Automatic annotation (TrEMBL):
Residues 193-392 form the GMPS ATP-PPase domain. GO terms for molecular function: ATP binding; GMP synthase activity. It comes from the Bacteria. GO terms for cellular component: cytosol. Its EC number is 6.3.5.2. The keyword Transmembrane helix does not apply. InterPro entries: Class_I_gatase-like, GATASE, GMP_synth_C, GMP_synth_GATase, GMP_synthase, GMPS_ATP_PPase_dom, Rossmann-like_a/b/a_fold. Catalyzes the synthesis of GMP from XMP. This is GMP synthase [glutamine-hydrolyzing]. Keywords: ATP-binding, Glutamine amidotransferase, GMP biosynthesis, Ligase, Nucleotide-binding, Purine biosynthesis. Coiled coil: none annotated.
Length: 518
C-alpha cells in the first residue's frame, strides 16, 4: 500500500481517497508509527499529511526520522512538507505571513517530476502560518508564491518530494495531478487498484475466512449492508442467509427494493421478518425522541435475535452445522475514526442500524473495512446491484420513527410515507439528487394549524422539508433548492396528502440544528 501518515485534522482521509482515485491502494497510519513498523508494511510510497500544528510548537506531532532512510518514495504535504524539511536539514521559519485559501503559485523551470506537465502559473489551496525558508541540501526548489519562497521541492535521487499547498483539495487546480505525478512518475507505482480487483481480492479473503461455514447478514436496505452481503454472496453463495427486518418505519417501496430488486440482482437467500405490529405496539403512546430510539433499537435486537435463533435451529436440524459468521458493513472511516489501529481520536460513536448486540456469538465478516463510501458504491455497481439501493442517500436506522414529532401511529406513518415519496420523486425529477446529501421529510404530528381548502376550513399538520448539503454529516448546510421545485413539492403535498395543509422549509445549518429532527 501507500501509507498516509496522519498528522491530525481530517486531511489524511481525503489524501487516502485521492491516492485511491489515482488507482493506488492506500492506508492511513498515525504519525507515532516507527520506521520499523512502516517498513513491516512494505509500503510502495508514503504521503505525509497536513496537520493543525506548527513544527516548533511544544508537543507538535513528529515523525521517526528513520522513515526518510527507508528508501521509500515519500511526498510531504503542508505540515508533512515542513516536517520533511526540518528533519532533513532545511529550515522552517515563522514568517508571520499566513497564507490561507486560494493562492497564486509559480512553478519554476520544468517543474521536475512532481510538477511535470503543469502550467507555470496556477492556483493552489494554502493553509499555513510557518513556511519552509531553505530547502534541505540536495533538494531542488520547484515552486514559490509571493510570500513563500519554497512552496515545493524535490530530491529525485532519493525520491523525496514536498508541497506546501494542499493538492488533495479540489481548490488546488492541478492537485490531483501532483498526487498522480508523485505516485506514477516519482514512485513508479502503476494505477491498478480498481473495483474489479477489490472484488476479486475480497472474494478470496472471504472464502479463506469462512471456509464451508454458514454466514448471516442483516440487511437494512442501505448501501453498506447490501454491498457487503453481495460480496459475501459472490464468495460463498448460499452459505449466506440474509435477514431483513421490516419494522414498518421504512419509506415507500423500500421493502420491495430489497425483496425484489436486490434479490433478483444478487440471488441471495432472504428471510423477511414482518415485525411491523411489534414495533407499532412497542412505540404506542411514546413521543420522547430518545425513548423512541431506545425502543426501536431494543425491538430490532430482539427481532434479530429471534430470527437468528430460528435460523440456527433450522441449520442444526438440516445438517448440525451452526451459523458461525455475521456480516457487517463497517466502512474504513468508521475504522479510522474509532481509532482502529491508527491512534486517531474517537470523533463520533456510530449508532449503527439497529445496533446489533455485542454479545452475539459470531465471528465478524467485514469485507468493506478498508473502503470509503464512494468505493462501496462503485463495487455495488460492479456487482450489478440496483441503482435505487447503490445510490441511496443516508437514511437513519430508526427510520420514519424519528421523523414523526409526536407519537408514532400507523396513520401518521402512512401519511408521512406519502409526503416523503412526493418529495423524493420531485427532487429526482429536478435532477437534484447529487446536490443534496439527504432530505429528511418530517411530520409535526403534535402541531396543527388552520388552513382553507376548497371552501372549507382545515385544521391540519405541517410537513417540514429538511434538505441538507454535507460532506460527512458531521456538519451540514441547508440546501438552497430552486423555488419552483419547492413550490411544486408544496402544491403536491397539500393537494395529495390528506391531513397536511402546510409545508415548511427548515433553513438551519448543522450546528446548531442536527440533520434529523429527533
Ligand atoms: P444528525 O441528526 O445527528 O444525523 O445530524 C447525522 C446523520 O446520521 C443519520 N442518523 C442515523 N443513522 N442510525 C443511523 O443509522 C441512527 O440512529 C441515526 N440517527 C441519525 C442521519 O440521517 C444523518 O445522515
Amino acid at each position: 500500500p501507500v501509507l498516509v501518515v496522519d498528522f491530525g485534522a481530517q486531511y489524511a482521509q481525503l489524501i487516502a481517497r485521492r491516492v485511491r482515485e489515482a488507482g493506488v491502494y492506500s492506508e492511513i497510519v498515525p504519525h507515532s508509527i516507527s520506521a520499523e513498523e512502516i517498513a513491516a508494511k512494505n509500503p510502495v510510497g508514503i504521503v505525509l499529511s497536513g496537520g493543525p500544528s506548527s513544527v516548533y510548537e511544544e508537543g507538535a506531532p513528529s515523525l521517526d526520522p528513520g522513515v526518510f532512510d527507508l528508501g521509500v518514495p515519500t511526498l510531504g504535504i503542508c505540515y508533512g512538507f515542513q516536517v520533511m524539511a526540518t528533519t532533513l536539514g532545511g529550515t522552517v521559519a515563522r514568517t508571520g505571513a499566513r497564507e490561507y485559501g486560494s493562492t497564486d503559485a509559480n512553478v519554476s523551470t520544468d517543474g521536475g517530476t512532481l510538477l511535470h506537465d503543469q502550467p507555470a502559473d496556477q492556483t493552489v489551496w494554502m493553509s499555513h502560518g510557518d513556511s519552509v525558508a531553505t530547502a534541505p541540501e540536495g533538494f531542488q526548489v520547484l515552486a514559490s508564491t509571493a510570500s513563500t519562497p519554497v512552496a515545493a521541492f524535490a530530491n529525485d535521487e532519493r525520491r523525496l518530494y514536498g508541497v506546501q499547498w494542499h493538492p488533495e483539495v479540489k481548490h488546488s487546480a492541478y492537485g490531483q495531478r501532483v498526487i498522480e505525478n508523485f505516485l506514477h512518475r516519482g514512485a513508479g507505482i502503476p494505477a491498478d487498484w480498481n473495483a474489479g480487483n477489490v472484488i476479486a481480492d475480497q472474494v478470496e479473503r472471504i472464502r479463506s475466512q469462512v471456509g464451508s461455514g454458514k454466514v448471516l447478514c442483516a440487511l437494512s436496505g442501505g448501501v453498506d449492508s447490501a454491498v457487503a452481503a453481495a460480496l459475501v454472496h459472490e464468495a460463498v453463495g448460499d452459505q449466506l442467509v440474509c435477514v431483513f427486518v421490516d419494522h414498518g418505519l421504512m419509506r415507500q417501496g423500500e421493502r420491495r427494493q430489497v425483496e425484489e430488486d436486490y434479490v433478483a440482482s444478487t440471488g441471495v437467500r432472504l428471510v423477511t421478518i414482518d415485525a411491523r405490529e411489534r414495533f407499532l405496539d412497542a412505540l404506542s403512546g411514546v413521543s420522547d425522541p430518545e425513548q423512541k430510539r431506545k425502543i426501536i433499537g431494543r425491538e430490532f435486537i430482539r427481532t434479530f435475535e429471534q430470527a437468528q435463533a430460528d435460523l440456527v435451529a433450522e441449520s442444526y436440524e438440516q445438517d448440525g452445522d451452526p451459523i458461525r459468521f455475521l456480516v457487517q458493513g463497517t466502512l474504513y472511516p468508521d475504522v479510522v475514526e474509532s481509532g482502529g489501529g491508527t491512534g486517531t481520536a474517537n470523533i463520533k460513536s456510530h449508532h449503527n442500524v439497529g445496533g446489533l448486540p455485542e454479545d452475539l456469538q459470531f465471528e465478524l465478516v467485514e469485507p468493506l473495512r478498508t473502503l470509503f463510501k464512494d468505493e462501496v458504491r462503485q463495487i455495488g455497481r460492479e456487482l450489478g446491484l440496483p441503482e435505487v439501493i447503490v445510490g441511496r442517500q443516508p437514511f437513519p436506522g430508526p427510520g420514519l420513527g424519528i421523523r414523526i414529532v409526536g407519537e408514532v401511529t400507523q396513520e401518521r406513518l402512512d401519511l408521512l410515507r406519502e409526503a416523503d415519496a412526493i418529495v423524493r420523486a420531485e427532487l429526482t425529477a429536478a435532477g437534484l439528487d447529487t446536490e443534496i446529501w439527504q432530505c429528511p421529510v418530517v411530520l409535526l404530528a403534535d402541531v396543527r394549524s388552520v388552513g382553507v381548502q376548497g371552501d372549507g376550513r382545515t385544521y391540519g399538520h405541517p410537513i417540514v422539508l429538511r434538505p441538507v448539503s454535507s460532506e460527512d454529516a458531521m456538519t451540514a448546510d441547508w440546501t438552497r433548492l430552486p423555488y419552483d421545485v419547492l413550490a411544486r413539492i408544496s402544491n403536491r403535498i397539500t393537494n395529495e396528502v390528506d391531513g397536511v395543509n402546510r409545508v415548511v422549509l427548515d433553513v438551519t445549518s448543522k450546528p446548531p440544528g442536527t440533520i434529523e429532527w429527533e
